[in-house]
Write a structure and sequence with these properties.
This protein is of the alpha/beta class. It is built from nine helices and eight strands. It has helices at about 15-25, 35-50, 55-65, 90-100, 105-120, 130-135, 150-160, 170-185, 205-220, and strands at about 5-10, 30-35, 65-70, 75-80, 85, 125-130, 140-145, 200. The strands form two sheets. It has a five-stranded parallel sheet, with helices on both faces. A hairpin with a 2-residue loop joins strand 3 and strand 4. Helix 4 (about 90-100) packs parallel to helix 8 (about 170-185) and helix 7 crosses helix 8. The radius of gyration is 17 Å and the shape is globular. The relative contact order is 0.21. The protein binds 2'-deoxycytidine-5'-monophosphate (DC). 2'-deoxycytidine-5'-monophosphate binds near residues 38, 39, 99, 102 and 179.
């Protein structure tokens, strides 16, 4: 049977990863969180003191990093060599670093090749910023998932507090606005809704309502039950 690919793009904090993960589980597909790959390189750049304005240096760091994706109980984990960094990459300073390293074309070229390869091998629900237009332009289903900045900041604050981080709403909101600006204004593959992507705005939705909207659209469009 042909592999099916579902591409989901959208800004930070729109609930993409939670919803995409739930959709993948429901459909029996593999969930691929591409943001985690940029985050891993961001973390490695912080730890090694690599200049985040130097695309060549970041590309060298990436190729020697031993970036690896493994699935443990159906959940995607990212590794640097043998080290599982899945939790460490969620810290706010790593979010900023991920946004900075993702602006370099050398970094994007390498990670996009890795992502396409994953989609070739299996049916996937893949989320990110450039999936619909660049990584998987022939995806069977394309969704642009968004929500208002306030809603997204509220959800991110909850998530970070659950993880034990002490954060203020204003700080998180400002971070999200800055990342939105940077992600939509970078030269290479800026975040944009693809013309053929279906818009789902989850402002005011509960998580369950967001999941329902996405999963029912995928089932309808990909003719899977
Ligand atoms: O989705 P996220 O917050 O984990 O993504 C972290 C950063 O990585 C985000 O600021 C933009 C970048 N990113 C990207 O440029 N392209 C992707 N496909 C996924 C993420």
């Amino acid at each position: 049977m042909k592999n099916i690919s579902v591409a989901i793009d959208g800004p930070s904090g729109a609930g993409k990863s939670t919803i995409a993960k739930a959709a993948a589980k429901e459909l029996g597909f593999t969930y691929v969180d591409t943001g985690a790959m940029y985050r891993t390189l961001g973390l490695a750049a912080i730890e090694s003191g690599t200049d985040m304005d130097d695309g060549e240096a970041l590309s060298r760091l990436l190729s020697g990093l031993g970036l690896n994706i493994k699935y443990i109980d159906g959940t995607q984990h990212v590794f640097i060599g043998e080290r599982d960094v899945s939790d460490g990459i969620r810290r706010p300073e790593v979010s900023m670093a991920a946004s900075r390293v993702s602006a370099h074309h050398q970094v994007r070229t390498a990670l996009v090749a890795f992502q396409r390869d994953m989609a070739k091998r299996q049916s996937v629900v893949m989320d990110g910023r450039d999936i619909c237009m660049h990584v998987l332009p022939d995806a069977d289903v394309k969704i642009y998932l968004t929500a208002s900045v306030d809603d997204r900041a509220r959800r991110r604050v909850e998530q970070l507090r659950e993880m034990g981080a002490e954060v203020s709403f204003d700080e998180v909101r400002a971070d999200i606005e800055k990342r939105d600006y940077d992600d939509t204004h970078r030269e290479v593959s800026p975040l944009r809704q693809a013309p053929d992507a279906h818009l789902i705005d989850t402002t005011g939705f509960t998580l369950e309502q967001g999941m329902d909207a996405v999963i029912s659209y995928i089932k309808e469009k990909a003719h899977v039950l």
